[in-house]
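Exercise: predict the fold of this chain.
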Amino acid sequence: MMTPPVALTIAGSDSSGGAGVQADLKTFSALGAYGMSVIVALTAQNTTGVAGVMEVPPDFVTLQLDAVRSDVRIDAVKVGMLASACIVEAVSDGLDSLCAQHPGLPIVIDPVMVATSGARLLADDAVDAVRALLPRASLITPNIPEAAVLLGEPPAGTEQEMVDQATRLLDLGPARVLLKGGHGTGAESVDVLAETGSAAQLLRAPRVPTSNTHGTGCSLSSAITALRPRRADWPTAVRDAKTWLTGALEHADELDIGAGSGPVHHFYRWWNQS
């Protein structure tokens, strides 16, 4: 019998399949993990934008999580879009129960606030609730705009400002911060990995010239989640996930999906492109 790592995503659904729970499950599969999901919201969206969002009742979010954790071993958790304060609170309680059941469980929180298309995916009054959730995270993965919102500061414009903001995000309670540089400029995409008691690390990769970036952030955080149970430490899992994502972006233009910002190619290592 196979015993693959089991990864759980708690996030919103993307009807076009490029981001959210669908991207998470594709990423888990591409990287050899068995994926499970707790869906907290439905979105009506495609590659050009988000037409609507419908939240799942918080008690049903809890019911999904209880059903999964009562039966299946969980090796790592990724938390993505949470939509509203009441859903954040339900997920927070669920994570407390999971951590009591699985001490040391790796938890990656991607504080999703805005879709690639620009649509708002988190209510304004939920930002404080998300801040209160962060101490439960082994790693948080905000992009530059999300880090700015969490800190109540202007977005970082330089590498040093990214390092400074990543360090200040640690004060909100997460064990580690990966501040993603995909919204930056220049020939390289630079991410900052910060951990209390250690010097921040700059993780560099070539900036891929493609407009097909839908679900990039979701896919990176879920890649880290899938890989962490099989990697010796967090920096190794983050670096390997970033390498995989760079490849997924490099091959994104091979897919003809939609008229807008298409998805990254989650299965570029496996699909026959001929």
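Check your answer against the key: The domain at 6-254 is CATH 3.40.1190.20 (UDP-N-acetylmuramoyl-L-alanine:D-glutamate ligase).
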